[in-house]
Amino acid sequence: MMAEDKFDDGKIEEIKEHQTPEKLYQDLIERVQKYHPSDDITLIEKAYHTAAEAHKQQLRKSGEPYIIHPLCVAIILADLELDKETIAAGLLHDVVEDTILTKEEIERDFGADVALLVDGVTKLQSLQLSTDYKDKTPDQLEMQAENLRKMFLAMAKDIRVILIKLADRLHNMRTLNYMPPEKQHRIAQETLDIYSPIAGRLGISKIKVELDDLSLRYLKPDVYYDLVEKVSERKSEREQYVEDIVKDVKQHIEAAGIKGEVNGRVKHFFSIYKKMRNQGKTLDQIYDLFAVRIIVDTVKDCYAALGVIHEMYKPIPGRFKDYIAMPKPNMYQSLHTTLIGPTGQPFEIQIRTYDMHRAAEYGIAAHWKYKEASDGKKVETQEEEKLVWLRQILEWQRDMSDNQEFMNLLKSDLNLFSEDVYCFTPQGEVKNLPAGSTPIDFAYSVHSAVGNKMIGAKVNGKLVPIDYRIQNGDRIEVLTSQNSRGPSRDWLSIAKSTSTKNKINQWFRNELKEENVARGKELLTAYCKAKGIEISDLSKSEYMDIIIRKYGFHDWDAVLAAVGHGGLKEGQIINKMEELYEKEHKKNITDEEVLAAVADTSVTPKISGKGNAIIVKGVHDVAVRFSKCCNPVPGDDIVGFVTRGRGVSIHRSDCVNVIKMAQEDRSRLIDARWENESAEGGEKYTADIKIFANDRNGLLADISRSLAENNIDIQAMNTRTSKQGLATLEISFEVSSREELKTLIDKLRMIDSVIDIERATG
Asked: What is the arithmetic mean of pLDDT over 84-98?
């Protein structure tokens, strides 16, 4: 059998279950002290005691004290060699969500850095990003996409929030067996769809490989356990085989004067499953279940070791990948080569430097490795390139108006089964694009201006159609022309990458703005013409400013463009502007004018108001409205009140507001009467009544039935019952006259338990 240290499963060390919190805390401190240069662990100690106190009454699903979970999360973060603040935040990540502690208290006790991290993780706590679209409503999809956005925003604020979240998810996945099956399935799916790809994109393979395997275990248990069984069947035989190769390689490397480590690596189950799925093979057909890894000091040694290896074993053509010269987007670097082993079986060798190995295992987490200056402060390292992908995501997010589209694009970009292609510019610069990319994607990856002016492309010196699928190693030259009219809408269906589609859409939005503005103008004019509205009356800058503010545009042209491309309906704009115009127009009638008109008896009375049913003495062209406090109906004694700036309001003579009116306001009262005692033309008026009754079962049903039998539409109803069992029902409905209302009230009085009915008088 092979020595233990020769095999590396690429995962973070398992934490034994059912340990005491004290033992786990001791383990955490030991791990931190291994890589931390100073002895100062006061922040971590304080965080542990605070979290233990906050969670002391809580238990996990397994029955263990809750503090076990934050401790395990902190241990995983310590295995990634993260800073003290992150470890402290890992210990405290659930306290704001699950206990009485607040963000402010954490900031006071642990500083702004820790508080920001805990707050960031708390915001992500509620994310349940199951991606089973089939059963979801559009609203749920919307919410899901929105949650994703929050997640990425949190990442942008401080990437350590995601590192804590990944550690949290890893420990939850490790203890998923305590959850009910449906929850296991949902969490595993969510892990595979969201968290594992993010760990992959951030280059943290140590977390990614374990999340993948654990997800497979719960999503496809039959596949997983079948693989486990079949892989272990020939385990000793394979280990012996790899051990022999390792020994052989080590000898040759040393003989060539190259210093380095050689070890065997077990391929994780998900990568075997992925290979079987992608290549349509059975396990027996996949030979490279183990890989050999050579770790050396310098890049020069990598290529020297490669030369030695290719002398020893025959390489398989087309299976050599140079990720050192052309790193993956997550900054992964290694040389990969597949060779024919001594027994004729293929196997893979990876060659990398120690720095590359660290970056491959820890990815972006390597950024926070302790590098402390003499004054104890961290020295910042420049690893900005690692955040390129992240920034790209955020760019999409800003450009995406449609959340569902964003979700779908994100999903395709985070697809675990997708591969990238590498190609070259004519100058030999490497471009990394999603598999299936076309010359259009290549042109836009160079620059938006190149894409917009593209008229064709050459691949390896030959003209190709624009839907040509780029292959690894292609040299691409984009043909442009200043006379080009810009991209075609067809390109959107040909392009593969998300950012390309965004750039094309952006061009259409900006380029066609003038056309959209002109069309918007036409639509507004046509709408006004059809409705008999004078557009010049509405075209005032103050009305336009209100519309601009209401819909959140920069200027009037942007409003017109939105109408032009169908984002806003012309009716919405005109109706709002008309409302503003009328409001202002009404205000122009002064009180003096109204009162003078009333006093002038030579003026012919004019019908005004709803349904032409009111004559207001001596007043013409004055807005008349029915007061809401007493809701008069034809047949009621009524009186007019000249309001300040809003024309005349009509009240019932017995309205409380009229009876209690101040003396100085009484001069504003004018005579008013109904033209007919009942409304003509089927005009309806709102009436309010109060019903007092002894409360009983079925009372409401009886009242509703009585109203329905008389073809009365209820507009609003409010009921309350006193402790003594007296029910008060306030009902609003429409009637055509006082007579109809009286008949209705008489019928309602006959209902059992009704004590009294009165009309609302304000």
From this structure: 86
Burial grade of 349 (CB within 10 A; 0-12, 13-18, 19 or more): buried
pLDDT band at 418 (very low <50, low <70, confident <90, very high): low
What span, in angstroms and rounded, lies between the C-alpha atoms of 175 and 187? 12
Long-range contacts of 319-326 (CB under 8 A, 24+ apart): 324/299, 324/352, 324/356, 325/430, 326/422, 326/430, 326/432
Three-class DSSP category at 276: helix
pLDDT, tens digit (0-9, with 9 covering 90-100), for 356-413: 888 877 776 665 544 443 334 443 444 444 455 555 555 555 554 455 555 555 555 5
Residue 183 has pLDDT above 70, yes or no: yes
Same domain, 629 and 579: no
Find all residues with CB under 8 Å of 97, minimum gap 6, and list them: 122, 125
Q: Which long-range contacts (CB under 8 A, 24 or more apart) does 542-549 make?
A: 542/580, 543/577, 543/580, 543/581, 546/576, 546/580, 547/573, 547/576, 547/577
Cα 737 to chain centroid distance, Å, stands at: 55
3-state secondary structure 303-345: HHHHHHHHHHCEECCCCCEECCCCCCCCCCCCEEEEEECCCCC
Give the span between the Cα atoms of 687 and 632, in whole angstroms: 7
The answer to whether the beta carbons of residues 185 and 219 sit under 8 Å apart is yes
CA 627/CA 609 separation, integer angstroms: 12
Q: pTM of the predicted model, to two decimals?
A: 0.54
Identify whether residues 204 and 264 lie together within a single domain: no
Residues with a known catalytic role: 97-98
pLDDT of residue 20: 85
Please report whether residue 451 resides in a domain. yes
With a CB cutoff of 8 Å and minimum separation 6, the contacts of 371 are 378, 379, 381
Give me the domain span that covers residue 752.
685-759
How far is the C-alpha of 70 from the C-alpha of 92, rounded, in Å? 7
The letter for the amino acid at 528 is C
72 and 156 in a single domain? The answer is yes
Whether 5 maps to a domain, the answer reads no
CA dist., res. 122 & res. 107, Å (int): 14
Residue 740, SS3 per DSSP: helix
CB-CB contact of 459 with 465 (8 Å): no
Q: Which two tokens stand for residue 544?
A: 């336009």
**Are 721 and 714 in contact, with CB atoms under 8 Å apart?**
no
Query: Distance (Å, rounded) from C-alpha 113 to C-alpha 161?
Result: 11
Same domain (yes/no): 259, 333: yes
Cα distances from 157 to residues 144, 394, 411, 666, in angstroms, run: 20, 11, 22, 64
| CB 214 within 8 Å of CB 191 | yes
Give the Cα-Cα-Cα angle 377, 374, 78 (nearest 5 degrees): 55
3-state DSSP assignment of residue 85: helix
**CB-CB contact of 737 with 635 (8 Å):** yes
Which CATH number covers residue 150? 1.10.3210.10
Nearest residue to 496 (alpha-carbon basis) of 468, 474, 472, 477: 468
